[in-house]
Write a structure and sequence with these properties.
Layout lengths: L1 H41 L23 H17 L2 H17 L14 E2 L5 E3 L2 E3 L4 E2 L16 H11 L5 H9 L2 E5 L5 H11 L3 E5 L24 H12 L4 E5 L8 H6 L3 E4 L4 H14 L3 E7 L2 E7 L8 H4 L12 H4 L4 H19 L8 E6 L4 E6 L18 H6 L2 H5 L19 E2 L1 H9 L4 E5 L3 H6 L6 E2 L9 H26 L6 H9 L9 E5 L5 H11 L5 E4 L2 H8 L8
Parallel strand pairs: 5-6, 5-8, 6-7, 8-9, 13-17, 14-15, 14-16, 16-17
Antiparallel strand pairs: 1-4, 2-3, 9-10, 10-11, 11-12
Helix pairs in contact: 1-3, 6-7, 6-12, 17-18
Length: about 575
């Protein structure tokens, strides 16, 4: 019983203390409002600078003389700029109210008048010029909030949850506001990175991408939507950023990131984010960042794994070429369009890239320099790997590097990496003679006329399960030799059955008998040769099917032909409803 009574007493004391704090908070807020109203009255003299106008105070004090009004305005301005007694007491009240609200000292909620944002411009708070930050805010009439840090009430409200962090605060937010970042790629990595950087208040964001939004992007590229499919990614991303935060500046570069513009673009920003999707661009971004002396936040995601690091953020940190002086073989460079990616994985890595940018711009925390963070989604694990230091002999950042902006423009990155500046898959190849290839319409005709044929799909079982034509046989290219005999017997059986069916139909319906048999037999064998029905081979894009035809013909199946364009060609030229990916 004594324990229960003691607990009740403690609870009562806590409730009483809480109520006292709430009452004190209300008193402070009332004092704040009174000071705010007095400050507003002092600032109503909008005609001080022009002179000759009359000022009305309180509605019943009459008209003051011009000299008196100018003296009051000068006194009010001096109090604002020089921290006079009235303004000092007001700041203390703001600080007390802010502390009660959980906001940083010297900050409290206040009114706001039409703000326009443009990074790098002079900041005006209530008509008072202050350095840095890029806010322009009218003549200040009716605005009671002003603090030494120069942030508006709108900014304090928007960013209050990170302003109150002990490790962050007003100074860090101001560095974000005056900072800039270039994000190369508005895809799976760039989408979350750009959105978070816009949301947290980075003053100027540049977005580089030359692609258009596709439906297959939307499961991971969350900055885009169904409404923006077909539009340039830069436009879609910029619109999303301004919807989220109209106070920042967003610049679009839809021409893409090329050797000709790389160094110029990078030089215009404080930090660079590599959110690209191909190895050629990765080398180019790193070289340009080294040449411009900018830190590079690099991320990658494929399948269910991702990784992130920060290159050349310090004099001893490595660049991309330090770690990979020789590019990997093109066969080892997997693409999301070929290998797939779990949609949320690039989201995780992109968000981490935004974190690193914030740390670099604000100088808060320790950047992920000379370390790589590896993420495994299926194992729900992060692994931090230590990277080697800068290599003195590195061709890009080494002590005797000859790399310059001009040499970057002349360097053939696509030849160096044996991969293009895009992630659109391999080009259409010509691996077999033209008489062994047919257009998609030839397959359509055979299916419509019910001609004897074998439809062989050499895609992987995963791709085949996604979408396939009815009646197709799935024999992946990697295991095609194991299926050759089955394909041969199927082609021979179909040819024989078609011939017999045609002969029977001809003998039953022919009035002349002998004249109908040869024609019927020829019709039954259309598309066949050597007693085999035609074998139409399809793949995803039309390249693997040519390799399969070559193997089939070498095995004696001379009726095998490759369908140009594969299933993508079928969807583009025959059946638009067939899903292409």
């Amino acid at each position: 019983m004594q324990s229960d009574e003691s607990d009740s007493a403690i609870a009562g004391e806590r409730i009483a203390a809480l109520r006292a704090l709430q009452a004190r908070r209300q008193e402070l807020l009332q004092a704040l409002r009174a000071l705010d109203e007095e400050d507003r009255r002092l600032r109503l003299g909008v005609g001080c600078e022009a002179g000759g106008e009359r000022r009305r105070e309180g509605g019943d004090e009459g008209k003051r003389k011009q000299e008196t009004r100018e003296a009051e305005c000068a006194e009010a301005s001096g109090g604002k700029r020089n921290g006079g007694a009235e303004r000092a007491s007001g700041t203390e009240a703001y600080a007390a109210a802010a502390a009660a609200d959980g906001l940083p000292g010297g900050v409290a909620d206040g009114g706001d008048g039409g703000l326009t944002r443009g990074a790098g411009r002079e900041r005006r708070v209530g008509g008072t010029e202050m350095a840095g930050g890029g806010v322009s805010g009218g003549n200040g009439a009716g605005r009671g909030f002003e603090a030494e840090h120069g942030m508006s009430a709108r900014e304090v409200q928007r960013y209050s949850r990170q302003l109150m962090l002990p490790s962050f605060g007003v100074a860090a937010q101001q560095r974000l506001t005056s900072g800039s970042v270039l994000v190369v790629g508005a895809g799976g990595l760039g989408s979350p990175a750009v959105l978070y950087l816009a949301a947290c208040g980075v003053g100027r964001i540049g977005i580089v991408d030359r692609d258009d939004v596709e439906l297959s992007n939307l499961h991971r590229q969350i900055i885009h939507s169904e409404a923006t499919v077909g539009r340039p990614k830069t436009e879609s991303a910029a619109a999303a950023c301004t919807r989220l935060n109209a106070d920042i500046t967003v610049e679009t570069h839809s021409q893409g990131f090329t050797p000709c513009n790389a160094v110029k673009l990078v030089s215009s920003y404080d930090v660079v984010v590599d959110a690209s999707d191909n190895v050629s661009t990765r080398y180019l971004i790193s070289d340009a960042a080294v040449a411009a002396g900018k830190p590079l936040v690099s991320g990658a995601a494929l399948g269910t794994e991702g990784q992130i690091t920060v290159y050349h953020a310090t004099p001893t940190a490595p660049c991309y070429r330090c770690l990979f002086p020789t590019p990997p073989p093109s066969s080892a460079c997997q693409r999301c369009s070929d290998s797939g990616v779990l949609g949320v994985v690039p989201g995780v890595i992109g968000a981490l890239q935004a974190v690193e940018v914030v740390k670099l711009l604000t100088r808060v925390g320790e950047p992920l320099s000379a370390r790589m963070l590896v993420y495994d989604a299926l194992a729900a694990s992060f692994l931090s790997v230590k990277l080697r230091s800068r290599v003195p002999s590195c061709a890009a950042c080494g002590e005797h590097s000859s790399m310059t902006p001009d040499s970057i423009q002349e360097f053939d990155y696509e030849a160096f990496t044996a991969s293009p500046f895009h992630d659109q898959g391999p080009k259409a190849l010509s691996l077999i003679p033209s008489d062994q290839r047919v257009p998609p319409s030839a397959l359509l005709s055979a299916r419509q006329q019910h001609l004897p044929h074998v439809l062989l799909d050499v895609r992987s079982p995963l791709h085949f399960a996604m979408a396939a034509l009815p009646g197709a046989i799935n024999a992946p290219l990697a295991t095609l030799p194991d299926s050759i005999e089955h394909i041969r017997s199927s082609a021979m059986s179909l040819a024989s059955s078609a011939t017999m069916s045609a002969l029977c139909a001809a003998s039953q319906g022919a009035a002349g008998g002998a004249q109908g048999e040869p024609a019927a037999a020829q019709e039954g064998q259309q598309g066949s040769a050597g007693g085999m029905a035609r074998v139409f081979v399809v793949c995803r894009r039309g390249n693997d099917s040519q390799r399969a035809v070559r193997a089939l013909r070498e095995a004696g199946i001379g009726t095998a032909v490759s369908v140009d364009g594969g299933m993508q060609g079928w969807g583009a030229h025959v059946d638009p409803s067939f899903p292409t990916y």
